[in-house]
Design a protein that fits this description.
Number of helices: 6
Largest sheet: none
Helix content: over 70%
Radius of gyration: 21 Å
Number of strands: 0
Shape: elongated
Strand content: under 5%
Distance between the termini: 27 Å
Structural class: mainly alpha
């Protein structure tokens, strides 16, 4: 299957009401996917896990503190080890692992959907977005 090389300028323009309804229908279908429901449940468990939230905050704060040193390569081994320890502590929570796994699965599914839409519509969405809104 080869994708046609249509540009945004080559597309037919639908009335706004049709586009809005199609977007609404797509979002409703997406919300019914098991991958989305699993992600929502994992997100809720992660947000309610106070210990995981505390460890995430500690990791983010240390990462922010060390960011200038990381950019210049001037981070010392002890600071790097401390950052890795905080990251490992955060990842040790089941709720974090469930959340990250659910997120990865949902993102992968959405990328597949995007590829299918691109193929069906003859528009390479990632390329179109990179050139106009996201790049």
């Amino acid at each position: 299957m080869s994708m046609a090389t249509n540009s945004i300028d080559d597309l037919e323009i639908a009335p706004a009401s049709v586009v809005k309804q199609a977007a609404h229908d797509f979002a409703a279908a997406l919300a019914e996917l098991q991958q989305f429901k699993t992600f929502e449940q994992a997100t809720l468990r992660f947000r309610q896990d106070e210990a995981a939230q505390k460890d995430m905050q500690a990791y983010k704060e240390k990462q922010q503190e060390l960011r200038p040193l990381m950019r210049t390569g001037g981070i010392n081994p002890a600071a790097q080890a401390e950052l890795e320890h905080l990251h490992d502590a955060w990842l040790a929570h089941d709720s974090v692992l469930e959340y990250l796994e659910a997120q990865t699965e949902l993102v992968g599914y959405c990328q597949t959907l995007g590829d299918l839409l691109s193929e069906m519509l003859g528009l390479d969405f990632p390329a179109a977005c990179a050139a106009s809104c996201c790049g």
